[in-house]
Amino acid sequence: MTPPTRHVGDAERRARLAIRHALAPQFRVASPEAVTRAVAVLHATEPATVYLSCAARADTLTTADVHRALYDDRSLVKQLAMRRTLFVFPRDLLPAAWAGPSARVAATERARMVKDVVAAGLATDGDAWLDGARAEVLALLADAPQGHVAQDVRRAVATIDVRVTVSPGAPWTASRVLTHLGLTADVVRGANTAGWHTSRPRWTLMRHWLGALPDPTTAADGYREIVRRWLYAFGPGTEDDCVWWLGATRTVVRRAFAELGAAPVTLDSGRIGWLLPDDGDRITDPGPWAALLPVLDPTVMGWQDRGFFLGPHRDVLFERRGNAGTTAWVNGRTVGCWVQDAAGAVRVRLVEPVSAAERRLLDVEAQRLTSWLAGFRVPTVYTSPAMAA
């Protein structure tokens, strides 16, 4: 590929975050759909993250607004994809996910399940067992336009009402069959039967949920479109960043970069970053800003190398498995985390000193989030050392 054309420093990268990710107040957006497009896709491993990521980037959104996009308009759809992670995708990006990262994970999951089924003695032909189980679930859901929760599916389909231990302390159940059906876009996590902070979906046929299904695409076209959106939201990023985020191979990423005409730049670290070919203009300074982001927020999880915004704080702001806890940001760098007290008020915990002006910006965001949560204390299983201190 062509040599780097210009230098992009960490200050410019941090300014891009404020603008592209709608984090600075003057760049906030007005809808869950706009929030999602600003960061390519939303992380949905924890249900509350979807809502809190939207609240951080919009001034007037409520939980009802996010619920409307997810379950009424269905303009945003949950889909297991990159790195076997659950995301919220804009509806028009679903075919790219289905053909690319979801199909890749589905193939890996099939191979593992087939092996486990045979090892557990459920069948001598694991592929036939899985195909039969999938067909039974699809037949059940075909007669249920509103879908079924996982517990009801398991009760109705005896084939998948099993518990297989693949290693000591690591069993899998009927949920893995549903997961595989979701990866292949046959079913979807439909209406949620629990609160906004909890996931208890009705598994529903994709054609029932979306109505007319979007036209399919090829794996190469799908990967290229997802990489294009990643470059817009997270560029300049390195090849390693994109390979990690996409959960694909260097061959896939390099092909997408080449087809998109991605432009190389040098970063402060000395590494090569990549931008879309029409994204070479320098970003203007957005001015002072602060933000409070939830666990596993897409901004925090957008790169493999996060040094330009994390500084030396990775070990205290990420839990031991590599998952991000809550983060407090000032002018594009992480300076701490946030927690809630017994009354539900949001409190910022700093991991480095900030100026008085920066502290005021953080206090404004803490009060804004406290008001938005209205006393509700958000549960999480991803507690960083800074949060637990």
Describe the structure.
The chain has 389 residues and is an alpha+beta fold. The protein has a domain of 99 residues. The protein has 17 helices and 15 strands. The strands form five sheets. Strands 12-13-14-15 form a four-stranded antiparallel β-sheet. A three-stranded mixed β-sheet has the order 1-10-11. Helix 6 packs across helix 7, helix 11 crosses helix 13 and helix 12 packs across helix 13. The chain is globular, with a radius of gyration of 22 Å. It starts with 6 loop residues before the first strand and ends with a helix.
Largest beta-sheet characterization: 4 strands, antiparallel
Percentage of residues in helical conformation: 40-55%
Total helical elements: 17
The share of residues in extended strands comes to 15-25%
Strand order of the largest sheet: 12-13-14-15
Shape: globular
Low-confidence stretches: none
Q: Radius of gyration, rounded?
A: 22 Å
The count of β-strands is 15
Question: pLDDT average, as an integer?
Answer: 95
Distance between the termini: 47 Å
**Structural classification:** alpha+beta
Task: Based on the model shown, name its key terms.
alpha+beta; 3-stranded mixed β-sheet; 16% strand; 389 residues; globular
Task: Itemize the secondary structure elements and their pairings.
Layout: E1 7-8, H1 10-20, H2 32-38, E2 42-43, H3 47-56, H4 63-72, E3 76-80, E4 86-90, H5 94-99, H6 101-119, H7 126-142, E5 148-149, H8 150-156, E6 164-165, E7 171-172, H9 175-183, E8 187-192, E9 201-205, H10 206-210, H11 219-234, H12 239-246, H13 250-260, E10 263-267, E11 272-275, E12 290-293, H14 307-310, H15 314-317, E13 327-330, E14 333-340, E15 346-350, H16 356-373, H17 385-388
Parallel strand pairs: 1-10
Antiparallel strand pairs: 2-4, 3-4, 5-9, 6-7, 8-9, 10-11, 12-13, 13-14, 14-15
